[in-house]
Amino acid sequence: MKLKSLYIDGFGKFHNKSIEFGDGINLIYGKNEAGKSTLHTFIKAMLFGLSESPKGRESSEYEKYEPWTGETYGGSMELYTSDGLLRIERDFKKGPRDLKLFTIREGQKIPMQGAEAANFPEGLTENAYKNTISIGQLKARTEKGMAREFKDTVKNLNTTGSSELSYDRAIEYLEKKEKAIDESIDEDAAINYSRRMGRIRNLERELSEPKYENRIPVYTELRDKMKDRLSELTKRREELVLKTERAEDILKQNGFTDEASIDECEKKAEGAFSEYRACERALKKKAAKAAAFIFAVIGIASCTLGAYLMFLSLTSPEGFYTPVYAVGRSFPAGINGIIFCAAGLLSLIIFLMIFMGRRKRRRRYDLAASSLAKILAAHTGNGDINEEAMSSLRERLQEFRKLIKALRESEEELSSVKDELIKLHENHDSCLEIIGKEEKVRAELEDKLTELNNLKCEAEELKRTIDKNNTLRENRDAIELAKENLGALSQRIRNSVGIYLNREAGKLIKSITGGAYDSMDVSDDMDIFLNAGGRMITPERVSAGTMDQIYLALRLSAVRLLERQGRTYPLIFDDSFALYDDERLELSLKAVRDMEKEGEKRRQIIIFTCHRREESILKREEADFKIINM
Amino acid sequence: MRFIHAGDINIGAKPDSDKRWGKERAEEFKDTLKKVVDKAKEIDCDLLLISGNLFCHQPVTKELYDINLLFSTIPATRVIITAGSSDRLRKNSSVLDFKWSSNVSFVLSESYDRINIPSLHTVVYAISLREGGSDISELVKEIKAEAKKDSGYTDILMFFNERHGDEAYERELTELIGAQSFSYTALGGAESFRELERGRIAYPGFLTAMDMHTTGEHGVIVGDISSATGKMIGLEFVKLADTCYIPISVEINERVKAAELRERLEAEMDKRGRNNIYKLRVTGKRVPEEEPELEALRDRFKIVEISDETEPQYDFSKLFSEHPDDIIGFYISSVMKNGDEEKGSLERRAMHYAVDALLATERKRSQS
Prior knowledge:
The complex is a heterodimer of chains A (630) and B (368). By secondary structure, chain A is an alpha/beta fold. Chain A is built from 15 helices and 16 strands. The radius of gyration of chain A is 78 Å and the shape is rod-shaped. At the A-B interface, helix 4, helix 5, helix 6, helix 8 and helix 12 of A face helix 7 and helix 8 of B.
């Protein structure tokens, strides 16, 4: 491929400008700001169109090269290709990629279509153009930098097939991304989550244990009931105490201690009363008085008769047997006297006995009366002894008995109340104790609940982290896959492109350096050595001038890679030698000239420059070249 | 009779606990409840109905104590609380023996409570959810039978509907509740305010937004029932919560620059309020270098989630034609050949990463 000519309708500062290119070396000279880059961009734009996407903060290429004057934006370019003469026309007003292609046969423009047009421009890509065909200034200004750039280029070509694409840096870039992802992945989230879930399950199981059932309401109710009963019982106890005290007082005041004392009192009263009554009855009996009187009379009479008879008998001769006539019969006076005396004495004894008995009874009567009167006086306030008083006494005593019975009952109740109170107090206390315990259990439960609630929050948070982790891991997997694929592709490139490139570069290096270096060796670890007659030299140790040549050789061998299908592309040097000293420039131009002549066909070479040095060197060397002044 | 119907107050919730505003959010649940109490004072509310999930978990005594203290400040408002799905009654619940202020009733019955409020001429039938579940439909039937006897009273039914959102069930429930039996049915459970039957059966929604599933405004229902007729006079939703969760979705194209996208999002969030919480989603194709880099927005706005689903605008077929002889072209052709280019597939994403890495680290010689 060779550029024949170009015509600028309107592009940046240029308007109606045409340029004819020579077959071999074209030296396009222009001072700074003369429009060299505009022209270069125009060539590129004719081949590939303009880019519309902005470059960082700058405006897009399309915007940047809008013509300063005139209505038209675009132009045309003619080039020789393996298909013959080709004409490119582009009207950028229609769009940055507008393109019309023609073949020119016998001066006729024939539009190109289909596969022919698709191959335009001769299988050359914009990328290959930018990175290989068009050779800009070497970025590196120092020897070390140049060596590094050279090595990078070799490496890149070997591993990616492109001088500008770096396998190592791409992998590094991916690893950085991967690291950033790894840093944001919380590796512990899953295990922390499952730990928390385990704890949550355990806590939930624990909390559902019957132990934690809330029994406080039951016990509180019970406690309240007991409390009521307690106050009720306490009140009752007080009542009972008062009652018993009062009853005891009453009894005490009346001289009673218990039922026996009442019984005794009653017995005494009843005894006295019946004695009193018996004595009274006996004393009141007239027969006894009469009998006593009779016995006294009979006794006296009998004794008198007896004494008389005795006297008779004693005074009578018959003595003892003195008869006495009475009642028609005779009786011995002595004997009868004795009998009468005895009978009289007996009667008197009987009288005495009766008399004494009555006296005794009287005394007993008095005694009974006085003791009864005392009792009655004590209980009824009046000592009168009579049936009424007695019946009152009996009633009263009966009341006392009732009182005692009530007292006993009260005492019994009191004691049972006291017992119940003790029990109730105990129960109440134990109820309180249970409530206390339940409250402790509840505190435990609530601690666990709080823990559970917190754990659930944490688990939720962790769940979110896990989801995020999963997304991040997927990204990491994608990066991992990208690395893997890049690795495999890179290996393939090394095995095919790399080997070819290194061989070609070696050949070119040998020719460019005039045999000072005869090959280039790239190790498996991408260490690069230059073979200087059997000595392996690292690029860092090569002089700067030679490095330039070698580097140029490498760039050119990359061009050769592109040209494997038998095509030849032009080489465009865009101010590439601006910073070279004269010696280096000379060496480089020599290499360029070698490239021009290389092979059967001549290669077109376009050098943009702002110096006149190239021109003078080429002239001195008597080289065949064309100068295009801008 | 004026009433406020609130639901799903979710005291104790800690959403966004991993975010810098997490503490603030946790407080907001209590703060919004305070606003409900203030609202009750402001409108001389007679009845405050809380239809479940006052707490977002089984409450402990301290929490009950705090809430009781708050409700004790509105002695003239009768407060009726039922348990919902999160704070359902269990055998170990502390609420079983909690002593509430005289104006507060927490429904503890196994079936339902009939709460008669003669001063308001109102009977409230309330169901609390229990551990093991309650057959709401059966209970509603029972309540309907009992409510028939309350002639002349305003009847209100309240419970937490665990199956909220199940449209068929909700229809069934609406039919079951019927048109005549209750002046109002206060439901709980739904995320946002919704009326199953206009002015008669409603969910107030979450009192405070919980997460991205509870977008929209949050507050309470304020209703007014005529004591004379037992009919609803007015029912409205009143916004009380400060925070809303707002999802913002933006689709970009290659003409949108990252800075511009950020500015647009900032403006949108500023417009909607910085107190709100946002979820950002950006989709579409972007210029490869213009990574949205939205993370920085997190410092100035409450953003709970950022999903950058933009794809660098790589035209793979163009890239392939530009790089036919190098690793980029080889990579693309291997993926295309294997038919792995399906969007979102691991292979495609790997290709994105690989191409991105190669282009990002490319030497820009030609630009010099």
